[in-house]
Amino acid sequence: MYQIDIMTLFPDVVGDMLCESILGRAQERGFIKIDTHQIRDYTVNKQKQVDDYPYGGGRGAVMQADPLYRCWKHICDEAGERVHTIFLSPAGKTFRQADAIRLKDDYQRLILVCGHYEGIDERFIEEGVDEELSLGDFVLTGGEIPAMAIADAVCRLVPGVLSDPECYENESHWNGLLEAPQYSRPEVWHDRAVPPILLSGHHANIQKWRRKQAILRTRERRPDMFEKLDLTSKQDKKLIKEMEEEGVW
Question: Which tens digits make up the pLDDT trace of 55-72?
Answer without folding.
Answer: 998 889 999 999 999 999
